[in-house]
Amino acid sequence: MRRLWIGALALNIGLVAPLWWRFGNIQMNLIAWEAWVIVPLMLLMPRGKVRLGVGIALASWLILATMINLGDAATYTAFGRPLNLYLDTPLLGSVVDLLIGNVGQAWAICAVVVATILIMLLVLGVIRLLLPGEGYPLRGRARGWAMAVLAFSSLAAGLALGGKPIIEHANLPVVNATHVQWGQLVTTHQAKQAFTQTLEAAPIEQRALSGLSGRRVLMTFIESYGVTVLEDDRYRPTLAPTLDEIERRLAEREISVVSGLLESPIRGGQSWLAHATALSGYTIDNQLWYQLMLDSEATTLVDDFRATGQRTLVVMPAITQPWPEGAAYGFDELVAEKDIDYQGPPLNWVTMPDQFTLDYTERELLDAAPVFAQLALISSHAPWTPILPVLEDWSSIGDGSIFAPWEEAGDPPEVLWQDIDRIREHYAWSIDYSIKTVGRWAERVVDDNTLLIVLGDHQPAPMITGDDASGAVPVHIISGDPDLLAPFQARGFVPGMWPTPESQTPAAELRQLRRWLHADFTAADNR
Fold first, then answer.
1. Helices (H), 162-235
2. Cis omega (within 30 of 0) on the bond before 137?
3. Residue 191 has pLDDT above 70, yes or no
4. Position 512 pLDDT exceeds 60
5. Closest CA to 226 of 448, 464, 445
6. Cβ atoms within 10 Å, residue 148
7. Which of 93, 235, 334, 409 would be 428's cystine partner, CB 3.0–4.6 Å?
8. Is 490 exposed, middle or buried (0-12, 13-18, 19+ CB in 10 A)?
9. What does pTM read for this prediction?
10. Which residue ranges make up each domain of the chain?
11. CATH level 3 topology of 203-526
């Protein structure tokens, strides 16, 4: 009888533990009916090949569902959305790369080893519970108890499936995970077909943006810059002085700025999907859509600006491995980490600080010729340590060696990330650094012939924003020519560095940016 109670209780805890992580509430998830059905069932079955086959099948199902629930909790923590096996399995390699960048290769290897050991223990534990070496099938009083538990739990599970649970805090985590993932498999496959048909049947045609002909157009993404930093009292006091100062300094130099909000398709990570959404004019919120778009004949802003006469350039200091996607976009020039002459230290995941990236771009990559450039800044990427100051003397930046003193500054990630309040504090500081750096850079590069589009790529993870935060990101349009800003004001953007959410309720989607440029800067006879 002890085997019945201990086995069912152990399996119950193993099945509901991922739900405790996912929902942060132990009391709401106390009983997993599968444990109280499967354990007595296996203890009642007679020895033989049938029992062995059933046990292996059930163990495989339980292990897979538990790993799915763990993955769901991890995905929600990182990206603020549920796991989708159809879309997220290809991201495992990126997760490992991110882990290495955040905590270093040694700690990342340790984490992978620990995770592997835990998975092996999970597998062995479940098999041991379902296929014990002795003490079965149960007999006598123990058999009666097992049959009673099996009958009651089967009834309760059936009622729960029918939407009439008899115990409030009991559920079916294995059945639910299987049902959700199968439903996502079907709907995602259908959505894939629909998206492919959209790319083929309703393409966004390439257009020359004559209203921007001869201009420098600089689209600059700030990592993890979401509207939360402007609205949440935990972060706003850090950012407010910087935004006000940038607004004042730009005005003193007769540089105009308007700001608004756009809804990013992602949360917490996968910045390249936000980049793809802005460039293509389609909502690209997963890796599959991203690859489909790149593999198709779909045009992007890269094609639009090439047709307008601009040289096209992308600056990606976070790209440390081969990047065939950049070639797929068709940029005239791709500048990744290996192409940038940076002699300063790496700063955990961050390969080089934003101020160096912007200074290098200004010195080495921009000239008087018309250009469309996409830049992806990374200093505000987790783990948000160390925090650098903005150097007032840009001429001292040189090859980046000047940043050497900050290589070991501040606590390392493994120390910082033990305290959620400190993590949030460092997040705000890193965003403040990036925005201040871009503001100073705007003073240097923006003139009457420049349109600088500064925008966040996505909100940070829910641990920073909270569970119910919107997906909106601030967008700042900066130019020395006020006429270039007028179309954005007509769409609800407001003067200054502070977007007002009530002026754009709800915020337009990020994919609209390309469509707006088509509508507002294309000659009427070419629309």
1. 173-201, 228-231
2. yes
3. yes
4. yes
5. 464
6. 11
7. 235
8. exposed
9. 0.74
10. 2-189, 203-526
11. Alkaline Phosphatase, subunit A (3.40.720)
